[in-house]
Amino acid sequence: MDKLTKTTGIALLKKLREIRQFEERIIPLYPTDVMVTPVHLHIGQEAVPVGVCAHLTAADTIFFGHRTHGPALAKGMDMNKLMAELYGRTTGCSRSYGGSMHVVDPANGMLGSSAIVGGSIALGVGSALAAKLSGQDRIAVSYFGDGAMDSGVFWESINFAALKQVPVLFVCENNLLSNTMTQAEHLFAKPTAVVQNFMPAFSADGTDVQSVYSVVGEAIAHIRTKRQPAFVECRTKRWMKHQGVDRDDLTYNKVDPKQDDPIWKLEQGLLENSMITEAEIKQITKDIELRIDAAIEFAQNSPFPNAEDLVREV
Amino acid sequence: MPWSRIEQSHSAADSGRIISYKDAIREAIDQAMIHDPRVFVIGLDADDKFGAFGTLLDMTHPERIIGTPISENAMTGVALGAAVSGMRPLYVHLRVDFMLLTMDQIVNYVAKWRYMTQGQVKVPIVIRAVIGRGWGCGAQHSQTLSSFFTHIPGLKVVMPSTPYDAKGLLLAAIKDDYPVISIEHRWLYKNTGGVPQELYTVPLGKGRILKSGNSLTVVATSAAVIDTLNGCEKHNLDVEVIDPRTLKPLDEGMILESVAKTGRLLVVDYDYPSCGFAAEVCAMVAEKGFASLKAPVQRYTFPESSMPASGILERAYYPNPDKIAARIKEMLAEQPVLSRA
Ligand SMILES: Cc1ncc(C[n+]2csc(CCOP(=O)(O)OP(=O)(O)O)c2C)c(N)n1
Ligand SMILES: [Mg+2]
């Protein structure tokens, strides 16, 4: 706990738990078909969005891909709106037209997410360019997985961001998997080794929110002061299957329930340093459960869209 | 050349074993790879344990199935480079939406290479893509886009609707020395039908009459063919159902002949309407078969909108057998507006 204050530590824990508990509630609900949308769960990887977004303001923009729930909640999306979107209700963040993969919340800097791997990396660069051109002091984040680094658009975006020196943070949430492919099977080189020729490139332990928080803090300080791009790779573990609500069963993706658990790690650290008590953890957990209960109720009581509204905002 | 010995089976008799659409595709690919060592498969997750929805499982030549990174545009160029250098690549995309990343390679390279080299270089490449909505996949994972490819000179486009055609058209595509885009609707994968065991091809550019009738001609593609047939059966409609099977080249003769008999045309195509395949068929009939028409031609397509995620809206978005039948009945109920002397 050398790097975290008590306040920050507890704030990070609350966000980690919010994402974890939100998704754990999806697991039993999903097979009942109340959520008709493909879900890519974040369980196990929460330290990355939480450690990154803790440094962002609402004005900072973020662009992510198909695995949306973690970064969306970490960046400040209202749980009710996300739950209602999963339930296909008009009160959802995308009014039920988007589903799990297309979430939006402009007030919190989320201007849309894409299910086509890679493409939205360029949008983060463009958003940073907009900040530069219009003299805003916000920054932008391009948030993606290791699979996205296979794509041309990733390398083209890195090159352009470096050429034009725009204030963008590239975050690779590296779960070392692209669907069922290991990173070694889909990406030849170590990403940081190549990217550091373009911009400062950092590595963090994506199973440890302290590590992500401190490394990203350094990267963002660079971006905010120098108005230049930076890259952070956060190595993490995917606990669930690529899509859906089942535990992953790939023999080459073994998960250690403690060492790969950002929540266990942070709670251990906070307890050891007497920054939190078991009772306080219980209370945090319970408060979040109540908020999720309310979100589910909100979603269930929200209206479905009307078929007459099929063609809208085309 | 190994392929010149393969007979084209013009009779569409679905004889032999009953197997699924998916297995028909699998068998076609397996047999093509056994038959011709130049045939190889490339694609993201082509070599994983799901094997492209089962169409690439248990292959005799797994060493010729190549998985790729998420690098679709470059990989299409790689496949084209292999094709012009003597191989016969079969590129597979688990969703057609990912093919949009390859439009530069497809439109500027694949479609034009034979033209720009004036046939001195052949382009025997097949690109398969799977389509079909489902489970709130939303706007970026539910498109059809067949009309898109049909728009481009230099590409042939096939959309098999039956297991028999799935095998025969895929083999014809692999055999062909021009680029062919093959689009498969995933709702069809479990459908079964008669499929001969041996290698055979279904000619590119020949349609098929799946149901004959007198009062109206329906031209339908892919899953819309099956929905139309089901709608006609359920509502006992006397219409002729044509599956062009190949969107390009199009079997214009078959469509015009049918319209000459029925005087009415409805095109059912699960794709966007504007400048789409349905519009193309309507224009063709208006140009070449105007004298046969008793009523205006009609299209039944997706609405002019992207696909919503919510289930209710998704269902409203898609045509289905009952909706198609209702549209046909509406057309039949109208008095002929075009009276011929
Ligand atoms: C261009 C494109 N190709 C293929 C896919 C199918 N697909 C969806 S997610 C995914 C794996 C992405 O891996 P990664 O970027 O590491 O993200 P993760 O799922 O691990 O979070 C693939 C191949 C896609 N959505 N877009
Ligand atoms: Mg990954």
CATH architecture of chain A: 3-Layer(aba) Sandwich
Largest sheet of chain B: 7 strands, mixed
Bound molecules: thiamine diphosphate, magnesium ion
Helix content range of chain B? 25-40%
Beta-strand fraction estimate of chain B: 15-25%
- State the oligomer: heterodimer
Strand content of chain A: 5-15%
* Low-confidence runs of chain A: none
Instruction: Based on Cα principal axes, name the global outline of chain A.
Output: globular
- Write down the secondary-structure element order of chain B: EHEHEHEHEHEHEEEEHEEHEHEHH
> What is the domain total for the residues of chain A?
1
Described by the principal axes of the CA atoms, the overall outline of chain B is: globular
Strand order of the largest sheet of chain B: 3-2-4-5-7-6-12
Mean pLDDT of chain A: 97
Q: In which order are the strands of the major sheet of chain A placed?
A: 1-2-3-7-6
Structural write-up:
The complex is a heterodimer of chains A (314) and B (341). Chain A is of the alpha/beta class. Chain A has one domain: Thiamin diphosphate (ThDP)-binding fold, Pyr/PP domains (Rossmann fold). Helix content of chain A is 43%, strand content 10%. In chain A, the strands form 2 sheets. Chain A has a 5-stranded parallel beta sheet, with helices on both faces. In chain A, strands 4-5 form a two-stranded antiparallel ribbon. In chain A, a hairpin with a 2-residue loop joins strand 4 and strand 5. In chain A, helix 1 packs across helix 11 (278-300). The longest helix of chain A is centred in the first third of the chain and has 24 residues, at 6-29. The mean pLDDT of chain A is 97. With 341 residues, chain B is an alpha/beta fold. Chain B has 2 domains: 3-194, Thiamin diphosphate (ThDP)-binding fold, Pyr/PP domains (Rossmann fold); 208-333, Rossmann fold, CATH 3.40.50.920. Chain B is 35% helix and 18% strand. Chain B has 11 helices and 14 strands. Chain B has helices at residues 21-35, 51-54, 72-84, 103-116, 146-150, 163-175, 223-234, 252-262, 277-288, 311-317, 321-333, and strands spanning 17-20, 39-43, 65-67, 88-93, 126-131, 156-158, 180-185, 192-195, 208-211, 216-220, 239-243, 246-248, 265-268, 298-300. In chain B, the strands form 3 sheets. Chain B has a 7-stranded mixed beta sheet, with helices on both faces. Chain B has a 5-stranded mixed beta sheet with strand order 9-11-10-13-14, sandwiched between helices. A two-stranded antiparallel ribbon of chain B has the order 1-8. The longest helix of chain B has 15 residues, at 21-35. Chain B is globular, with a radius of gyration of 20 Å. The model of chain B has no long low-confidence stretch (mean pLDDT 94). At the A-B interface, loops of A face helix 10 of B. Magnesium ion (MG) binds next to strand 4 of chain A.
